[in-house]
Design a protein that fits this description.
181 residues, alpha+beta, Muramoyl-pentapeptide Carboxypeptidase, domain 2, 4 strands, globular
């Protein structure tokens, strides 16, 4: 008989090993929502402690680094060499981003340009439901999307079609255009 005070190792398979494709998809979406919730909570804590301007400055710098890490990992996953991506590779990489699993995006291509529209954004639609002003994310987005695209190919030039605090478009909350020169 084992001592009741003795620790016994519990053998268990990894949590995701026996999940169905549908269950894995749900787990991925939940992980993405958790990531976004953490990002929002971090921002609110910084804003509460230091004010909106400082929070925006720190948010921009955080996204400057995170977006490059995310792009590099996505490129590795899809088998594209960093800096050598095409317009089609950028479109695929955008669809692999964390937020692409929980926000509705539309991607369009024309010659050497790609246009990505955030049709539904969890952050902005939640703010609208709470009768809050839209989050003024344009300055963060300029850094985020520019840096992401440059990892795919440094020849990408990123511009903003619209994004809060500017007027949003009828098509969605923000729109970004990537041109490969």
């Amino acid at each position: 008989m084992k001592n009741q005070n003795e620790w016994i190792e519990l053998k268990a398979s990894p949590a995701f090993e026996k999940m169905t494709k549908s269950q894995l998809r749900e787990a991925l979406e939940d992980a993405c929502r958790l990531w976004l919730a953490h990002d929002g909570l971090w921002f609110l804590a910084v804003e509460s402690a230091y004010g909106l301007n400082e929070a925006m400055d720190l948010d921009r710098e955080t996204w400057r680094e995170f977006t490059k890490i995310e792009a590099r990992r996505i490129l590795k996953r899809i088998g594209v060499e960093e800096g050598k991506g095409t317009i089609d590779d950028l479109a695929l990489a955008i669809r692999h981003r964390l937020y692409a699993n929980i926000n509705k995006i539309k991607i369009e291509k024309r010659r050497n340009s790609l246009r990505m529209t955030m049709v539904d954004c969890r952050v902005q639609s939640a703010r609208q439901r709470k009768n809050m002003e839209l989050f003024p994310c344009k300055t963060v987005g300029i850094v985020e999307y520019s840096e992401f695209a440059k990892v795919i190919n440094p020849g990408f030039v990123t511009s903003c079609g619209f994004c809060p605090p500017d007027r949003i478009g009828d098509e969605g909350y923000c729109q970004w255009i990537f041109t490969l020169g």
